[in-house]
Each structure stands twice: as C-alpha cells, then as structure tokens.
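Weekly modeling sync, notes
Attendees: S.R. (lead), two postdocs, one rotation student

Agenda item 3: backlog of single-chain predictions. S.R. asked that every request posted to the team notebook include the full sequence so nobody has to chase files. The rotation student volunteered to paste the first one in as an example of the format we agreed on. Action items at the bottom.

Example entry:
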Amino acid sequence: MRKTILTFILFLTLSSSVYAEIKSKNFLQQIFNGCSNAYNEKSADYDILVQMIGVGGVFEYCGCFVNIISKQMNVAETMKLGMEAMKVDDYKSGDVSDEALSVLLQNQNFSDAVVQCMTKVVK
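Predicted structure, as returned to the notebook:
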C-alpha cells in the first residue's frame, strides 16, 4: 500500500497540465502503472495484499483508484498533495513514511478513493 502511494505521488509531479478533472490518458496510465507495479515480489506488503485480495484484486483496486481520482481530483490538486507529502518524507527508503501517509489520507478525495476501492475488492 505504501509503495502505491509513493508511486502515485511521483507520477503526480510529471504533468504540468491542469484540468477540471483528470482526462489525460498518459497521466492516468502512469498512476495505474505505478499502483500495479508497486505490488511485486520485492514489496514488503505484497504477500499480505495478495493473500487478502489476490493478484487480480490488485489490478481491480488500482483501476478503481485511478477511476475515482480521475473524477474527483484535478492535476493541480494531485500535484499539490504529492508535494505536501514530499515535505515530510524524502522517500529514500522506497517506502512512504507514516507521516507522509497521514498527509495523503487527510485529503478527503484520496482517502475516499482508498476506502471505496479496498472495500470493493475485499468483499
């Protein structure tokens, strides 16, 4: 989960266009790729997550997350959120710190997407 958020933050900083909602296929594809690639055999959370929702569930979660974020946030908001999280964590360890995670989850759209999508795939 932490690597998904880290990857999400990193890809948020790659775009300079601002939309009322996120419509850039490339931007959304990067978020999805970062999310799905964050869960691999090298991830500390991989085994736990796969036991909970399966490999296909990871893809379902990432698709759901990208879909909700694309409708509820714009590029500027996502970039700002990523920058706020980066202020409390340098990400050199490869994991998102509890402090950075706290910053991300304070954003209502972000936390709603996490809850909605995890609830959907855990059922």
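Discussion: group reviewed the output briefly. The first helix runs from residue 2 to 12.
Action items: rotation student to repeat for the remaining queue; S.R. to check formatting next week.
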